[in-house]
Amino acid sequence: MTPLERTWNRFWFGLAVPASKLNLLRILFFGVLAVDVFLELEHAPRYGAGGFNVSHIPWLDGLGTPSRLTIVVLLLLQSYLAARVVFGVAVTSSVRVLALLYGITYLCSQLDSYQHHYLVLLLLVIASFVPWERARSEAEGAADPAIPSWALRLFTIQLALVYLWAAIAKMHPAWLDGSTLEAQMSVPWVRDAIAGTVDFGGMAWLIMLTELGLAIAIVFRAAWPVVWVIGVGLHLSIEMAGFKIGLFSYFMLGIYMLFAPDRWITAGARVLRRGWARARPIGEAIARVPRPALAAVCAGAALALVASLPFEASGVAAVLIGLAGALALWWPAGSAARVALGHTLACVFLLAGHLASDQAFDYYKYLAGTSRRLDDPDTMKMAYQRLNELAPDYGPAYYHLGNVARKDGDAAEALALYQRAQEREPPDPRPFIGAAQVHLDQGDPAAARAILATCIERVPDARSCRAALSRVPRSR
Amino acid sequence: MASRRISLFIAVFLALQLALPTSYYACREDEYDERFAWRMFSPERMVECDPRFWLHQGGRGRQRVDLNRAFHQAWIRTAQRGRVEVVRRMALELCALNPGSEVRVELICDPIDGEPYQRSADDDVCVTGEIW
After folding, report:
1. From CA A423, how far away is CA A393, in angstroms rounded?
2. Tens-place pLDDT, residues A392-438
3. Which one of A70, A72, A279, A347 is least enclosed by Cβ atoms within 10 Å?
């Protein structure tokens, strides 16, 4: 073996970190990913809209335009898989399938060109080879052994490369003079703080040099405590600066636990393990539950998703999730009770995500708006009807459905829908004008004038109603 | 043997991670296509473009395409960031949606570090397949 080979092997195969640190990284990274992917659901209506798409890789265009339904299924599956990795179910196979599905979703369209999603894709590919399963099983014992992993080294080097290229990109006059940073910074107090201290030019240099320093320091394990302090500070600052980068800062803060001092993580794990020991009887009781009963729980969790998730095609996703749970349950390795519990918790995560967020509402709102602009009345009608079911107080849905009814010649239905829209707060002049138009279509200008007069009375900014009223003939 | 395969995987992975960003600086024709180059918060990201698509239909003169009626907002936003391939593919989509028409493109851009400029395709994109 040559000295170069020895150095290479020592660098790539010599890194070992405590099992507890790998477990913490798994929980934080995949936890944020489960949330991040779930929050992408509202963007699914972009896909396939108007039948147009440009993929990241030209040959993928030959596979056709990805539809919003496909993306919904892919995103729900990914969110489930990421959650079940957090809960320790079939970790290695779940991470590999997750990497594949994430790659398909990301690469199929330039609609998603977020660089942090590209980074997550690369990290997922690398994470497919990290010994998560071994670290998880070590957590059940009393020791916290160091686990070697070349993939974890590559994980860190990937981060170093990102910082290196990010620093190179900033070696540009328009960055270094501070003008680009100033143009992107929107939070007033952060702007004032920078302007009052190092100014934007100084901050631009500082950011570039910090990224360059991190790129170098990450390579040396001895420098990781410094990397941890500086990196956490950098990404907290980026989050506070209000850049529109989704959950990227949270991803990075989670990943940075890898660089935290080992003894802190090990000590924290020891405390947690003592807490878990008290819950051991519960685990043992679950372990005694017969496999058919566990299968019934898994199937029940998937059925709850079918019944509760309101996204289009979420039923298909739930069936696939149920199958994925069944596959993990009957896989020869691992405890059936742990799989059933993890699968059920991952399903509960999806349900909680739906109940705690506006994803379904935003999904149908964006779908309705897109199909209205792109002249797809059937989809638009379906989307507004679903909005009515999800949020009966959302006035614009009644207004747009009223427009559909008016175009279809159903005056009574249109007036009823406009009436419901008029009752919503804050008052919107458009349903009054729509109702007036129905009356005009029916040759009843007096009724049109009356409804526009009501609009002027009720709506604070009634300029459009006044303009409409001026156009209504005084008599037949 | 396993470590050799792993070493090969690492070497290929690293080579790609060096080659893809390098290609942006060395040979990428579109400076606003910063994908795979790790150019977060770059000056190029701040460009504001106005993509204009024109339909020429025989003797009826030219007509500006209302992009909101043809494409999702997200694609229009991508075109406004000056990404040439997306603009080209939008033009080709308009060719497919309007058979028999000529499609021409203008892209007026205002970069953060320079003067506004305009690029336009003088030839029918439906024939050439390229915008410039």
Report:
1. 9
2. 999 999 999 999 999 999 999 999 999 999 998 788 999 999 999 99
3. A279
Residue B96, C-beta contacts closer than 8 angstroms, at least 6 positions apart: none
Q: What average pLDDT does the structure give for chain A? A: 93
Across A42-51, average pLDDT: 96
B96: three-class secondary structure by DSSP = helix
Q: What is the mean pLDDT of chain B?
A: 92
Alpha-carbon gap, residue A66 to A51, rounded angstroms: 9
pTM score of the predicted model: 0.93
Percentage of residues in chain A having pLDDT higher than 70: 99
**Identity of the amino acid at B120:** S
* Residues whose CB is less than 8 angstroms from the CB of residue A266 and which lie 6 or more positions away in sequence, other chains included: A18, A20, A21, A144
Range with the poorest average pLDDT among A26-40, A374-388, A418-432, A462-476: A462-476
Using the beta-carbon criterion (under 8 Å), do B113 and A54 form an inter-chain contact?
Answer: no
pLDDT at A461: 86
In whole angstroms, what is the distance from residue A25 CA to residue A95 CA? 13
Q: Do B69 and A162 touch (CB under 8 A)?
A: no
Contact A350, A308 (CB under 8 A): no
CA distance, residue B86 to nearest chain A CA (Å): 7
Are A52 and B72 an interchain contact pair (Cβ–Cβ within 8 Å)?
Answer: yes
Q: Which residue has the tokens 């690469």?
A: A107
CB contact under 8 A, B72 and A170: no
Task: Tell me which of B1, B41, B77, B86 to substitute to probe the interface with A (most A C-beta atoms closer than 10 Å).
Answer: B41
Type of residue found at A310 = P
Mutate to test the interface with B, among A115, A150, A203 (most CBs of B within 10 A): A115
The ipTM is 0.94
Query: For residue A374, which residues of chain B lie inside 8 Å, CB to CB?
Result: 69-70, 72
In this structure, of A44-48, A185-189, B20-24, B58-62, the range with the lowest mean pLDDT score is: B58-62
Nearest alpha-carbon partner for A328 in A342, A339, A317, A320: A339
**What pLDDT digit, counting tens, does each position of A193-207 carry?**
999 999 999 999 999
Between CA B24 and CA A166 the distance in angstroms is 13
Please judge whether A12 and B14 are an interchain contact, meaning their C-beta atoms are less than 8 angstroms apart.
no
Q: Is residue A162 within 8 Å of residue B38, measured between CB atoms?
A: yes
Provide the pLDDT for residue A276.
Answer: 80
Contact (Cβ atoms closer than 8 angstroms) between residue A21 and residue A258: yes
What is the C-alpha end-to-end distance of chain A, expressed in Å?
Answer: 101
- Positions of E strands within B28-89: 48-56, 62-64
For residue A154, the chain B residue with the least C-alpha distance is: B10
Report the percentage of chain A scoring pLDDT > 90: 83
Question: Cβ A374–B69 below 8 Å, yes or no?
Answer: yes
Cα dihedral A107, A112, A113, A115 sign: negative
**B75-88 confidence digits (pLDDT tens):** 999 999 999 999 99
